[in-house]
User: Fold this.
Amino acid sequence: MRLHDQGNDVHVAYQTSGNIAVTDEFVTRLLTLRSAFSRCLIWITRKAGKYWQKYTKFLSGKQLNQIDTAEIRAIKD
Assistant:
């Protein structure tokens, strides 16, 4: 603030992984789209279905400010 108040141009830059900027709703839509796409193409497997159920169950019960699982963070990245 002091530099700004003295008339200097002040620029701020920061870098993040971006995973906290991706909403849970976006991940849910992505997982739903993936599931629907897989069913349409008849490529869904038991393992993929279990992952979809696991991730959507976690997101539906996620508490405010609860940390995402590593898998959800990977989807958000």
